[in-house]
Amino acid sequence: MIKLNRRQALIMGGAAAATALAAPAIAQGTKIKVGALRFTSHSGSFVAKDRGYFADAGLDVELEFFQAAQPMAVAIASGDIDYAVTAISGGLISLAQKGAIKVIGGALIEEEGIDGQQILASDAAFQAGVTDPSKLGGKSYGVTQTGSSFHYVGSRIAQAEGIEMSFKPLQKVGAVVGAIKSGQIDAWNIVPHIAKPLAGSGAVHIIGAVQDYLPGYQTTTVFTSAKNAADQRDKTEAFLAGFSKGVADYNSTMIDQSGGDAGIDEMVKLIHQYVYADRPFEKAKPSIVNGTMRINEGAKLNMASVKDQLEWFQSGGYVDASVTIDDLVDTSYVEIVG
């Protein structure tokens, strides 16, 4: 009987969970560029690259990092990168309408029972009485760009609470962090690996959770150029196969904790190469662990959430009213739910 060490068992388990997306035969070493943010939520790509799952699928992957969603969408449309994982934005939808981009799967999702994106208030706003989202009426809410995913989430919170807020575009996540810490904006929403350390420092306060307003929110999606989706099916399926094995490892280790503390440590060390790499491991580890959220197995896509996002962008005039869900999504690659 062959005995496996913990790492081998985790890898084999992750591979088994992703067999529904077995890699097609493509030329070995096919070079592609994959867009990402330095967020824990992009760990599917990090794991697939470092554990050889992309290579097993025949792909030689170079990761290219961005600071916001919309520039990544532009890079896909221009052919500067081949595949990416990020939130749906107005820019992405408009490029899809022009036939440049297709969403082909889902990634990060809000799941009940797992800490997801947190709603934050600046210390100044909190001390002035903004202790829950219902008290955000008349306050300023940070976003990267007008028509970004942050704008969508903030607007849905305001709608649910029956209040109005002003939205302040600051272009980059780092700029929003600085603005809420200094009190230049009153509120924001962000993934837990950023939200919890900020709250722990006392500079901001967690006043709510996004999943209370948007259960099942398809926070990020997997997308590519319309050309890749239509004409490079083998390459696209190979990317999804490798990515899905990385996701399976990540979920198994960080959410199901199948490898125990040792497995978590090994996974965090892998992610630390890309997230908070400028910090010592022991300081980075709590933030990375705090960022644990479910990434959809097999890149399945919550279509109900995607449709709600599209409708919001249309209702606000951020994208053309004539855009259809078929313009945005190629449903032929992964399981569609919702």
TrEMBL record:
What are the record's GO terms for cellular component? periplasmic space
- Alphabetical list of InterPro entries matching this protein: SsuA/THI5, TAT_signal
* Pfam families from the UniProt entry: NMT1 (PF09084)
Q: Name one GO biological process term.
A: alkanesulfonate transmembrane transport
What's the main place this protein lives? periplasm
- Keywords from the UniProt entry: Signal
- SsuA/THI5-like domain residues are 40-249
Coiled-coil intervals, chain numbering: none
Specify the domain of life of the species encoding this protein: Bacteria
Q: List the signal peptide residues.
A: 1-22
Q: Subcellular localization, per the record? A: Periplasm
UniProt record similarity statement: Belongs to the bacterial solute-binding protein SsuA/TauA family.
PANTHER family per the UniProt record, alphabetical: ALIPHATIC SULFONATES-BINDING PROTEIN-RELATED, TAURINE-BINDING PERIPLASMIC PROTEIN
* Designated name of the protein: NitT/TauT family transport system substrate-binding protein
* Source species: Pseudooceanicola nitratireducens
